[in-house]
Specification:
This protein folds into two domains: 2-235 and 514-540, no CATH class; 245-333 and 340-503, Nitrilase/N-carbamoyl-D-aminoacid amidohydrolase, CATH 3.60.110.10. 42% of the residues lie in helices and 14% in strands. The chain has helices at residues 2-10, 13-27, 40-57, 61-83, 95-98, 102-126, 131-149, 169-172, 175-191, 210-234, 255-258, 264-275, 307-316, 378-383, 450-466, 512-516, 519-540; strands spanning 245-250, 291-294, 322-332, 344-354, 359-364, 404-407, 410-417, 436-441, 470-474, 479-482, 488-492, 498-503. It has a six-stranded mixed β-sheet with strand order 5-4-3-2-1-12.
Length: 557
């Protein structure tokens, strides 16, 4: 193992870039749809040894920072190219108009995301150390920059390292304490632990075993976290105060047909037919349902402006039932101090429609999809021939943020449209905690790719973080029912038409993360800073843990 480490430490230039690119691409195997967590226990230690070489070869801190930035950039580019290449699928839906953008998207999008890994590695390289301290430094730096990635320019917190534990229900439960941001730090730290096994041992006393002690300590931490998660899963589920019967509809409408006026009537009729389908002797149709759920932008028209469609819904629903549907919503633009109102604002919304066909509540999407629902730098890019994927004059209007909707006879819920479910810190109104989360989406843009599966993974972690069940309706899949521990109770796979009937799972008590949010990450970062400072102090005052590779061949600066 030490021989491999030494070889990685001495590479530079294009060879280092290629190695980092390959390690990043391989690391994406830890994400959905494969969820191969053990891959990170190989790729991240190898990357640590590359960064050891950055520290060894740098003649100054400035050079170490620049080399660390480059290494992180290539690793991140490989990671995001392999992990989110499916984004390009959306540009083939209307290929004649958007396909020319695919090469640009596949290059510049991963490149933009890789900047955050580059900055994290540059920060780590600036204060690189030996032994376990360098693992703590790297984990903390990447956790911090990944948190920024989820916030800046509306954010894109996709495929952060913490999602690598999605395949382990036990380890996933740790998100209820520290959120996905805290899991990022923990996963990177523990996955880097094999790098310690190649460290140069000290030549005196018990300190010669420091690298083994560090490795064993991180494995004990991993086992402890697994045990904590196991305990959470074995705890009795909360009792349901009131039975709420829900039907989720998945129509499987191709994106190429969804907004074609020729198919408008047929699409709406298919929703009505599926909604009243008999699925078992116990569920003979809509009469046995309290809440009916349709996916994002389900009606292929402005349903509030279509009395005939609302009348059809009223005829479908029992008097005491409601429909929760994604829909486009239009309202007159408000006047400003500088100008008269012009046209209408269009929102991507969730509408609550009662048994009389009346819209009794709405939620408007806040986090819009760049290039899908709005165009960044619209005037410039429009001039270059770039258009939004969703055909709409101008951009969608934004809503006012998380909102808890309370309807008589139904437990209060929070709505999340499409990739709003990806934003851990913005899924609920903290002042009015709901009893469950509704996620409506249309992943038809991305076909049968990793995208919809990674999207579902995001929903699972929001359930764990908040201790709230998630009801998810997706146009082409994956529709699902997720309990408060992130377990999928039922689902419909991609590319099928059907319904899911369920009794709404109960909410768990508010989790640590639900109460304190990303302050949990701040605490972990503070602990890392204190721990790193103590390790350095001990090394400088005689109780050294030892520098990695402190033998005669190579020394760390």
């Amino acid at each position: 193992m030490r021989a491999i480490a030494l070889k990685l430490m001495v590479i530079w230039g294009w060879r280092r870039a290629c190695v980092c690119l390959a390690l990043g691409a391989a690391s994406a195997l830890a994400m959905e749809p494969l969820s191969l967590l053990p891959v990170l226990f190989v790729t991240l230690p190898l990357f640590v040894w590359v960064l050891d070489g950055v520290a060894v070869q740098a003649g100054s801190r400035g050079k170490a920072i620049r080399s660390g930035f480059a290494a992180g950039m290539f690793f991140g580019f490989g990671y995001f190219l392999a992990g989110v290449h499916w984004v390009g699928s959306a540009f083939f839906v209307e290929a004649e108009e958007h396909a020319w953008l695919v090469p640009l998207v596949l290059f510049f999008f991963p490149l933009l995301l890789s900047l955050f890994w580059a900055i994290g590695c540059a920060l780590a390289a600036a204060v690189w150390s030996g032994g376990i301290a360098r693992l703590v430094i790297l984990a903390a730096a990447l956790a911090a920059t990944e948190w920024v990635r989820g916030m800046i320019f509306t954010g894109f917190p996709w495929n952060t390292p913490g999602f690598a534990v999605a395949g382990s229900p036990e380890l996933s439960q740790i998100a209820s304490f520290v959120g996905i941001s805290g899991l990022n730090l923990i996963v990177v730290l523990i996955a880097c632990s094999p790098a310690l096994l190649a460290d140069e041992p000290e030549r005196r006393g018990l300190s010669r075993y420091h690298h083994w002690a560090g490795f064993a300590g991180l494995l004990v931490l991993l086992a402890g976290l697994w045990g904590l998660g196991r305990h959470a899963l074995q705890s009795p589920p909360p009792a349901v105060d009131e039975v709420t019967r829900i039907r989720i509809v998945q129509p499987n409408i191709p994106q190429t047909e969804k907004w074609d006026p020729v198919h408008r009537s047929r699409i709406f009729s298919s929703y009505l037919e599926l909604s009243d389908a008999a699925t078992s002797p116990e569920v003979t149709g809509i009469s046995d349902v309290d809440v009916l759920v349709w996916p994002e932008s389900a009606p292929p028209f402005f349903i509030e402006q279509n009395p005939k469609a609302l009348a059809s819904i009223a005829a479908l629903l029992p008097d005491d039932a409601i429909l929760l549907t994604g829909a486009l919503r239009s309202e007159p633009a408000a006047a400003t101090a500088d100008a008269q109102p012009q046209g209408n604002n269009v929102f991507n919304s969730v509408l609550v429609i009662d048994g009389k066909g009346a819209v009794i509540s709405t939620y408007d999407k806040t986090h819009l999809v760049p290039f899908g629902e709005y165009l960044p730098f619209e005037q410039l890019l429009t001039g270059l021939g770039v258009r939004k994927l969703v055909k709409l004059p101008g951009s969608f209007a934004t809503g006012d943020g998380a909102k808890t909707i309370s309807i008589p006879g139904v437990p209060a819920f929070g709505s999340l449209i499409c990739y709003e479910i990806a934003f851990a810190g913005a899924v609920v109104d903290a002042s009015n905690r709901p009893a469950w989360l509704l996620n409506v989406t249309n992943d038809a843009w991305f076909g049968n790719s990793a995208g919809p599966r990674q999207h579902l993974q995001q929903a699972r972690f929001r359930a764990i973080e908040q201790g709230l069940p998630v009801v998810r309706s997706a146009n082409t899949g994956i529709s699902a029912v997720i309990d408060a521990n992130g377990r999928i109770l039922d689902h419909l796979p991609i590319g099928v038409s059907g319904v899911i009937d369920l009794t709404l799972p109960a909410a768990a008590p508010a989790t640590v993360y639900a109460l304190y949010g990303d302050w949990c990450l701040a605490v972990l970062l503070a602990l890392c800073a204190v721990g790193t400072a103590l390790l350095r102090w001990r090394r400088q005052h005689g109780s050294r843990l030892g520098n990695a590779y402190s033998g005669p061949e190579i020394k760390l600066h």
